[in-house]
Amino acid sequence: MAGEGEGPRENLTGQDQNDGDTKKNKGVETESPIRDHRHHQRGQPPRRRSRPPPQALRCSLCLFLVALLLLMGITTLIVWLVYRPHRPRFNVQAAAVYELNATALTTITASMQFTVAARNPNKRSSAEFRNIYAFVSFRDQAITANTPLPDLNLAAKSTVVISPILGGGFVPISPEVSSGLAMAEAYGLVPMRWILQGRLRWRSGVFKSGFYGIYVKCDVMVGLKPGLAGQVPLLGAPDCAVDL
Asked: What InterPro entries does the record tag this protein with (predicted)?
């Protein structure tokens, strides 16, 4: 009886062992892929961060340059609005005629001196004149040659008086101008125009503008009689017109 009873127990025990082995094998089978996967992840090299493409870098650089230029333009505009200069002012104060000979119908010789005050009305900007010259005209035709003048610098709120002698040589004119000048001289009143041309630049502290062309015209009426030379009276002294 004892032998018969022990047989089934051994069979059950063997079956239990088989079941345990099967569970262990299943456990190994389920755990091994995870371990292999973790091991595979640990063995991979670290991923590098992706770099932006060259096109994106160029776009960023262009945007930065555009923003920088825009900022510089706004700054320049603000400075210009703050230091915006006004045109210089010119005024003829005196005149002298030393020679005015229009005996020939096509040429004239003249020597004149005009005293002109140039004023800079700006508080923060100085004016710099370069490559300037002056001459005198009658009826929109020059009766003196162009006379170069030295460079002129006007500090803020300052006035400079210039008195150049113009002419001294033969200048070609039309017969109409020659006859008209003779008639005006005989009448005793000669309308003349003193003209200055050149280039002007403004300076405000460390900031300076580009050069502008400047054209100054001063219309005066001179009391003149034939045979008289020297200081002549001016009928009125209006301000000159200034074009930039």
From this structure: NDR1-like (IPR044839)
